[in-house]
């Protein structure tokens, strides 16, 4: 019997790459670097490159050889949602559950939150703008400081 990845884990791994790219380019950096992504996801640079090529084929990223990679609008949409979910969960863990958390402890849940759940959680938490680590939380349709006309979940934080 061969080893096959379930659809779900492929989806999660794609989402983790897109999330890493988002985080990497959050601070005014235009292109994410292969080495940074490899360190961040704890995988080898050749595997990163291989995955990026797949993501480029699916039009999630634009990969510029030897220069770096950036998210397309399609990629940003997914990455922004995952980053938002992740950081909302961090805020909840701290504010509601009063647990000390690190970046990895909520990892996983963010892949399984639908938009309504995320917006309900965001509303419950009073639409936090930053996670406990100080990173910006992408705004959602529920957030009062956003008009739904301006690409609700796509705004660069
Ligand atoms: Zn955080
Ligand atoms: Zn909100």
Report on the structure:
With 157 residues, the protein is mainly alpha-helical. The protein has a domain at 7-74: Arc Repressor Mutant, subunit A (Orthogonal Bundle). It has five helices and two strands, in the order H-H-H-E-E-H-H. Helix 1 packs across helix 2 and helix 2 (34-41) crosses helix 3 (45-57). Bound molecules: zinc ion (2 copies). Residues 87, 90, 103, 131-133, 135 line the site of one zinc ion (ZN).
Write the layout of secondary structure elements.
Elements: H1 7-24, H2 34-41, H3 45-57, E1 61-64, E2 68-71, H4 73-95, H5 115-124
Antiparallel strand pairs: 1-2
Helix pairs in contact: 1-2, 1-4, 2-3, 4-5
Strand content: 5-15%
Query: What number is the mean pLDDT?
Result: 84
CATH architecture of the domain at 7-74: Orthogonal Bundle
State the helical fraction: 40-55%
What is the highest CATH level, the class of the domain at 7-74?
A: Mainly Alpha
Q: Strand order within the widest sheet?
A: 1-2
Determine the number of helices (DSSP H or I, runs of at least 4 residues): 5
Give the oligomeric state of the chains in this entry, treating copies of one chain as homo and distinct chains as hetero. single chain
Write a brief caption for the model.
It contains 5 helices and 2 strands, in the order αααββαα. The protein is mainly α and 157 residues long. It has a two-stranded antiparallel sheet with strand order 1-2.
Short key terms for the protein model shown above:
157 residues; mainly alpha; Arc Repressor Mutant, subunit A; two-stranded antiparallel ribbon; 2 strands; 5% strand; binds zinc ion
């Amino acid at each position: 019997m061969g080893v096959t990845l379930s659809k779900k884990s492929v989806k999660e791994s794609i989402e983790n790459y897109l999330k890493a790219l988002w985080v990497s380019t959050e601070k005014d950096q235009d292109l994410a670097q292969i080495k940074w992504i490899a360190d961040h996801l704890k995988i080898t640079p050749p595997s990163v490159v291989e995955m990026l090529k797949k993501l480029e084929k699916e039009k999630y990223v634009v990969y510029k050889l030897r220069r770096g990679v950036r998210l397309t609008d399609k990629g940003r949409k997914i990455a922004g949602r995952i980053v938002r979910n992740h950081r909302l969960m961090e805020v909840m863990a701290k504010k509601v559950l009063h647990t000390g958390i690190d970046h990895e402890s909520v990892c996983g849940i963010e892949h399984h939150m639908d938009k309504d759940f995320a917006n309900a959680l965001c509303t419950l938490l009073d639409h936090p703008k930053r996670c406990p680590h100080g990173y910006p939380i992408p705004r959602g349709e529920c957030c009062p400081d956003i008009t739904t006309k301006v690409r609700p979940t796509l705004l660069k934080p």
